TrEMBL record:
Keywords: DNA-binding, Transcription, Transcription regulation. Residues 243-309 form the OmpR/PhoB-type domain. InterPro entries: GAF, GAF-like_dom_sf, OmpR/PhoB-type_DNA-bd, Sig_transdc_resp-reg_C-effctor, WH-like_DNA-bd_sf. It comes from Streptomyces indicus. This is Transcriptional regulatory protein, C terminal.
Length: 417
């Protein structure tokens, strides 16, 4: 198959592939094994679904009832391009007895339109407006997986994680705001086996691009300047804001990291618990640190009640989190510059650091890519990571395996001594 994002290669028998996928789905859901002919994008999605504890028998829940749904989608940016998407898809959907569906960035369906009989059938599995079809809720499916990995994807038959969805085939493509790059949601076409054709994936990509082009004609919104925080592999974070580069003290590094992680803001009490192991620490000490930080950054950047940053923050550790969440392991590894504020003992920083490291290490071991595993064990922070060394021994080509196994034995003896 030349395109791993297309479900069926030319000449593939759909019925035979469906039977093979059902056997592979059973093997995965009962024993955790991924077998042929499961594509890599689907295998990665199945693993994310399992980690999210999605049931193979799940059905979607409706999160937005009629009144809430109407108000929410009226204000959603994709409402402005729905007439265009309807115009582009309506004939295709009606002729093929397909559905046009549009979801938001959280995988909630906002519109489901198309052939009446197909809509009734889809309604029996709650493929309806207001239902949540995020990958973390429903497992592998085109709209949910498209927003999870942020790229067009086709899902055929038993590639769906949920068995009630396996009679269906769908293709979806993410839609971004052209001025900000923000993921707005995805446009999806859902129907029967004929949608497994490469043309359906190309078509839904074209619809997404047309929607973005329409949005590009709008006046760009005025938004605050994004600030950038580099906190991975550094004891003292680097902040880039308003054309200035600021090397922060260790306490200010911790404060900025916490505020970047919580854009909604944190109260003084929450910051005290996050920063200090000693619960008797005086709030006066914290207020003094925040006052010094405000003087350094400028009063317009740090607000209070609750304490929060007034400009969008792009932080290196948040980028790694997003890429891991999307299954982009190579991209996450490329953005990872080392442990988060490695010398910090602030309780919440320690939790964030350990969670990020565990997530990345688990993804590397799961992916079993020899180059990525080698990059980790050859890094300053991964050289003594026995679990990753063992994964590398299993993933290495036969010609290199003996040398890696020798490293594993030596490290095991050293750590057992």
């Amino acid at each position: 198959m030349t395109d791993p994002w297309v479900a069926l290669a030319p000449g593939t028998d759909p019925a035979e592939r469906t039977r093979a996928l059902r056997r592979a789905h059973t093997a995965f859901t009962t024993a955790g094994r991924v077998e042929r002919p499961v594509r890599q994008v689907v295998a990665d999605s199945w693993r994310r679904s399992a980690r999210a504890h999605v049931s193979p028998e799940c059905t979607a829940e409706v999160e937005l009832a009629e009144a809430d749904l109407g108000a929410y989608r009226a204000e959603h940016p994709l409402a402005r391009v729905m007439p265009l998407m309807r115009e582009l898809v309506s004939t295709y959907a009606m002729d093929g007895e397909h559905l046009l569906a549009v979801c938001d960035a959280q995988g909630r369906l906002l519109w489901v339109e198309g052939h009446a009989l197909t809509r009734r059938r889809a309604g029996r599995m709650n493929f309806v407006p207001g239902a949540r079809w995020a990958e973390s809720a429903m497992g592998t499916n085109a709209p949910g997986t498209a927003v999870a990995v942020d790229r067009p994807v086709q899902v055929f038959a038993a590639e769906h994680f949920s068995r009630p969805v396996q009679p269906w085939t769908c293709a979806a493509a993410p839609v971004h705001h052209p001025h900000t790059g923000r993921l707005l949601g995805a446009v999806d076409i859902t129907g029967g086996t004929p949608l497994a054709h490469p043309h359906s994936l190309a078509f839904v990509q074209a619809v997404a691009r047309a929607a973005e082009a329409q949005l590009a004609l709008e006046q760009p919104p005025q938004s605050p300047e994004t600030i950038t925080l580099h906190a991975l592999g550094r004891d003292e974070a680097l902040l880039v804001a308003h054309g200035r580069k600021l090397r922060l003290s260790r306490r200010h590094s911790e404060l900025l990291t916490l505020l970047a992680r919580h854009p909604e803001g944190l109260t003084g009490d929450q910051l005290l618990l996050a920063l200090y192991e000693d619960e008797s620490m005086s709030p006066v000490t914290l207020r003094a640190e925040l006052s010094r930080l405000r003087a350094l950054l400028g009063a317009d950047l740090l607000a209070s009640r609750p304490y929060r940053l007034t400009s969008p923050v792009e932080a290196d550790f948040l980028l790694v989190e997003r890429r891991l969440g999307a299954g982009a392991v190579s991209g996450a590894m490329g953005a990872y510059g080392g442990p988060l504020l490695p010398s910090s003992s602030a309780p919440e920083i320690v939790r964030l650091r350990e969670r990020l490291d565990r997530g990345l290490r688990a993804a590397l071991v799961d992916r079993a890519d020899p180059q990525l595993l080698t990059d980790w064990v050859r890094s300053p922070w991964g050289g003594e990571d026995l679990d990753v060394w063992q994964a590398l021994a299993g993933a290495s080509p036969r010609s290199a395996r003996a040398g890696v196994q020798a490293e594993v034995r030596a490290l095991d003896r050293e750590q057992s001594a």
